[in-house]
Amino acid sequence: MIKVGDTLPHTTLMEYSEVEGEGCSIGPNAVDVAKATAGKTIALFALPGAFTPTCSAKHVPGYVEKFEQFKAAGVDEIWCVSVNDAFVMGAWARDQHTNGKVRMLADGSADFAKATGLTLDLTARGMGLRSDRYSMLVKDGKVVNLNAEAPGKFEVSDAETLLAQAKA
Q1: What is the DSSP letter of 107?
Q2: In sequence order, which residues have a C-beta less than 8 Å from that of residue 24 and are 6 or more positions away?
Q3: How far is Cα of residue 65 from the mean position of the Cα atoms in its chain?
Q4: DSSP state of 7
Q5: For residues 18 and 90, is the Cβ–Cβ distance under 8 A?
Q6: Is Oxidoreductase a UniProt keyword of this protein (predicted)?
Q7: How far apart (Å, rounded) are the C-alpha atoms in residues 2 and 124?
Q8: Residue 29 bridge partners (DSSP)
């Protein structure tokens, strides 16, 4: 499992973007994790799935609401990573009003989740391999803080906890 001091895995995530208004989509676009994190401070949080109850009601909204505070604390970008395809993440971004605040990044084949060792096997529930719920502060591609949740919990990966770490 990835730990504090480790470099994020050299994988590619996907991002779906839209043009302003109700225009055609731009993407999905590949996001090279190593290149996208180089020289930046990233507040990254991951969760089991888009449109799921805790993720939609608590996890994403907390980061959207605290966007300005994260910026003031020196965070360049906030990333939400989930084992969904880019089109689902794009639809969820619209639903959660994340535009310009939280980058909704798809880990469609769970490559990032597997490479970090932070996976959740929900095969028995018909959902396949997913990401664990966690947050991490990443500086120049290296993990500075890691907050992995216990199964079924939402106690340490919230925006408040990671924001406090970013301010420290």
Answers
A1: -
A2: 18
A3: 15
A4: B
A5: yes
A6: yes
A7: 25
A8: 15
pLDDT band at 163 (very low <50, low <70, confident <90, very high): very high
Per DSSP, the three-state class of 101 is coil
The residue whose two tokens read 């597997």 is: 114
Looking up tokens 């001091």 gives 5
Residue 20 in this model has a pLDDT that exceeds 70: no
Work out the average pLDDT over 83-101.
Answer: 95
Contacts 24+ apart (CB under 8 A), 149-157: 151/120, 154/54, 154/58, 154/59, 157/45, 157/47, 157/59, 157/133
Among candidate residues 116, 117, 147, the one with its CA nearest the CA of residue 133: 147
Strands 77-82 and 41-47: parallel
- Measured CA distances, 97 to 53, 83, 94, 130, 133 (Å): 16, 20, 5, 23, 21
Tell me the domains of the chain and their CATH numbers: 12-167 (3.40.30.10)
Give me the active site residues, please: 55
pLDDT tens per residue across span 124-158: 887 778 899 999 999 999 999 999 999 889 999 99
